[in-house]
Structure formats: C-alpha cells, structure tokens
Amino acid sequence: MTAQLERTPGRPRVLQATPWVTAVWGVAFLALTALAVVGRTPHPWSPEEASALGGLTGGQMSWTIAVIAAIVLAAQAVGTLSRRTAGRRLAGWALVGLGIVVAVAVSDVRALAFLGYLPMSLMALVGVGPAAGHIDGSVFVDAAAAVAHAIGGVAIAVTGFDVLDRSTAQARGGRVDRRRWARWGPSAVAVAVVVPLLYAVTRIAWALDVPLGIRREMLDDLGSARYAGLGLALFAVVGAWLTSGLLARWGEVFWAWVPRVGGRPVPVALALVPGLLVAGAVTSAGLSFWRLILTGHLAEVPGATSDWAAWAPELLWPVWGVALAVACLAYLARRVA
What we know:
Shape: globular
Strand content: under 5%
Largest sheet: none
Helix content: 55-70%
Number of helices: 12
Mean pLDDT: 83
Structural class: mainly alpha
Number of strands: 0
Number of domains: 2
Order of helices and strands: HHHHHHHHHHHH
Distance between the termini: 17 Å
C-alpha cells in the first residue's frame, strides 16, 4: 500500500496539459506579434534594460518572438504526428531549447518581480502596506507578459522532454529507465535550498536594521522599502522549504492530518509546475543582473557597487534556477519510474 502511495504510475496529467499550453502560447504570441509588425497593435514586449535581450527594440523582439512561435508550433506538430523516431527526437530537442530561450531570455526580471511582489502590490492597490500610493497599474501589463512567457517557456520545454521520453520509449519497445534523472535529485535540491537562503539572510538582516553587506547610509535611504525586501526574503525561505519537499516523503504523500487529502499521493503537477515556473523566473532574473554587470550598468542597481549585498546574491540565481529545474525533473523521474 505504501509503495503505491509513493509512486504515480503512468503518464502524469501535467504532461497531457503542457502541449495545450504550448499551443496556446504559440498561437497567441504569433498572432500578437503579427498584428504588432503590421502596426495594428503595440508590440507585446517593451524594452527593458535589465533583460537578457534588453539590447533589442520592441519591433525586433516581435520578429524574434514570431519566429520562435512559428518554429515551436511546427516542432510540436512534428513531435505529435511524425512516425519517425529521428524526426520526433529532433522536434523534442528543438522544443526543449526554444522553451529554455523563452523562459529565461524572452521572459525577464519582470516575471520574478511580479511573482515576488504580487501580495504587496495587491495590498498597495487597496491602500495597504508600504507600497500604498506608489503602484502604477500599468506596470502589471508588462509584468503579466513576462509571466506569460515564463509559463509558456516552461510548457514548451516540458513538452519537448515528453516528446523525447516517448520517442525513446518507442525506440526501446516501451521501456525507459528514468532512474538516471532521479540520481541528480539530492545534489540539485541541496543547491536549490542554499542559494535562496543566502539571499534571504541579507534582506532579513536589513529588516532588522542590520546593514549586512551594505553601508548604513544605504540602509537608512531604503526606509520602508527594506520591508519589501523582507517579503521577498520570506518568499525565498518558504520556497527553500518547499524545495526540500522534492526529496521528503511529504512531497509525495500528504500528511495524514491534512483534511480530505491526508495520506493521498501529492499530484505531480503540484510540485512540478510551480517549481519549474520559479526556476525559469529566477534564472531569467539572475541573467538580468549579469547583463547589468557585463554592460556596465551595475550603477542602476540601488546602492553603490561597494554595497555587495544589493546585487551579489542575485548573481547566484541562475545556479539556483538550473538546480531547481534539475530537482523538479528528478522528482518527476522518481514519481513515474
């Protein structure tokens, strides 16, 4: 009985849903960018200096997104309809690669900012909290587009992995050894837990009026903004704890005391979807900080370059994102093995 609870045999429902999300992203943004190119609508991506592709204009990004969307739809069709293993594997790798590009490059730091500041932003819109009166509703438009690309990119990549998995199973007579992915789980989880906690320590210290890694002058200048950092820190701490669940029993089976679902298997999607979404968002945000450094725009980050805690922890975010993605895939492999 226990063994049955700890395993989710067969193909999880999330893998059945991701092709639909992929298709919706492809059709929607192919249409939006086509309308923008002919001047019917504004470009669906506005320039952002703190972005992996911040050097491109809105028009150039529209062409880029349109080409990616067209290739994604074509690769998805090949991966679904082709009977040749080689063709399906090529389509699968194309989807994986393009999904990563969309999730970490087309999407940008605005996706993580939206997710991290969402509770505080919603409070501000009703006049509550330190950001009350300082929120412009228009910022949600660009942020929502960034989140849409993060979701779409993750769905595209997962669809690609599923195509590869099924093509491998077809070539091997229906049998695939997924345990090799599961072996990476413990190491990946350890990294994905430690990195966000390093960031959280600095922001919690600031909220407690301890200028860890920054000058006292900067901490005083932050004022109530330090509590926004505290919100992100608590978000990181909760995320680290949830990440540890990718290895724990409670990450596979609900605690017995939980009403209605106690003792039942945790749906794979409940861990996989938010985990991969955060992985893409933090990787993209981390690359944005690296771009600011490489292009000489680090001064645009609040504080002086000597205030290392204002920017150094974020440079580890790509490591965090990759580790979290690997941990999620290892979790998936263990649950469906």
